[in-house]
Structure formats: C-alpha cells, structure tokens
Amino acid sequence: xxxxxxxxxxxxxxxxxxxxxxxxxxxxxxxxxxxxxxxxxxxxxxxxxxxxxxxxxxxxxxxxxxxxxxxxxxxxxxxxxxxxxxxxxxxxxxxxxxxxxxxxxxxxxxxxxxxxxxxxxxxxxxxxxxxxxxxxxxxxxxxxxxxxxxxxxxxxxxxxxxxxxxxxxxxxxxxxxxxxxxxxxxxxxxxxxxxxxxxxxxxxxxxxx
Length: 209
Description:
With 209 residues, the protein is mainly α. Helix content is 81%, strand content 0%.
C-alpha cells in the first residue's frame, strides 16, 4: 500500500471508475486493519501488572503480527499489479490466428496470476488466526471487542479474496485447471471461516460472562 497518500485519496481512487484499487485490494487491506487492531491489543496489554505473566508471549505475538501487517500490505499492492497485467493482456492485438492464440495464452497466464494473489491472502488469513486467538485469550480483556473486530476483518478479507479467486478461476479458458485450483483454495477458505466463527464465539462468550 502507498501510505504516503491520504485516506481520502485512497477512497477517491477506490470510488473512481479505475478498476484498481478494487475488491481484491480491499480484501488484503482488511488484513492490514485486522493486524493493526490485534497489535493495538498487544500494546494495551504489555506493561500492565495484571498481565505480567503473559507479557513475553504477548510481545512475541505482537512481533509476529507486525510481519503479517506488512505481508497483507504487500498483497494489497500485488493485487493491483496482477489485475493491471490482466488488462494489459486484453489489449494485445488479435488480428491474426497467431496473435489470437498468443493473446489468449497471455490472458490466461495473467488471470491465473490474478487468482494466486487472493489465494495467498486466504492462506495468510489462515496463518494469522492463531495469533489473534492468543490476543483474545490472553490479551487485555478490556480490549476484547477490538480483538473481535480483528477476527471479523480477517473473515471479510478471506471472503473477499475468495470471491476474487472464484471470478478469476471461472474466467480461465482451461476450466479443468481453474476448477482444480478453486477446489484447493475453497477448502482453505472454509477452514478460515470455521476458525473465525470459533474465535468469535469465544470472544462473544467472554464478553457476556
């Protein structure tokens, strides 16, 4: 993500008729926001006498979450680049049979690449969830709702990313490859949804107790 631009500029670009940034970028950016919220809970935990026994673990968790924040940010940029490559492929000449074949090949390559980025977002969502669960279980319980929002954002990131995998895989000329890849990613996506639901239930139960 280009953090030199203001939030207003980002939202203006998002609202414009330009295809990038789009839904895939927002899905990855949801991961950035989730990571940031979880890091905030860590910061609100460390230095508190009540949580001295878990301070070392929370500090380690915070350091790992910082890596995920960077990772999601990089994926947001990658999503823009991947989609731009698809658009460039569609602009290739198609006057002759050779040009048509080359164009179709380039479109498929770029489209598959555009599916791989959100697939990586889903995998990253899967990997960050144990850290957010640790934050919810052992972090400052006064900020438990913030951990809950982080989980919700990860669920949103994964769902948004899966929609982008879906649209790209179903656009491939070779549907066998597209369907096989989609099935593999959908299994991971369903796992993320289930884990998010479990952590959300944990948080809701804690808040009600």
